[in-house]
Amino acid sequence: MTAKLQITIHKASGLEDVERFGKNDPYARVALDAATDADFQRTRTIPNAGKNVSWEETIIIAEFHPETQHTLFVEVLDRERHDDDLIAFTGIPLQQVLSTPGQSFRGRFDLFKHIGSKKGEIVLSIAVIPSGKTEAPLPAQPAHVREV
């Protein structure tokens, strides 16, 4: 069964400051397969946001196979001229979403720099859009929606 996965990236807080001068310029990115950078879809960068940032952006992953794709990978990075710096990451078990009524879930998730080293948290809404449907109900759905 192929479905879509709708992820609203609300905000992150308590992020580590990775800038030498100034404040973090963070963006978030999500993927069902974290093998390459091309697998990720991202939010816009928020210049000088620092340790707390709000995106309120929705990304729709057009092909979600719940029987084989079990984890949503989330990273928060600091935009740089050359190589962006990883601020923190997490992996979210999608069984949390699949087992809820309506297959829609809003939650606060810990972010890590290294396994066991908490470096902030991120608030996401995640919903499965069944095959043949065009949208899923999410709490506080923002106007900015991008399908990838």
From TrEMBL:
InterPro entries: C2_dom, C2_domain_sf. Residues 1-107 form the C2 domain. It holds the Pfam family C2. This is C2 domain-containing protein. It comes from Linnemannia gamsii.
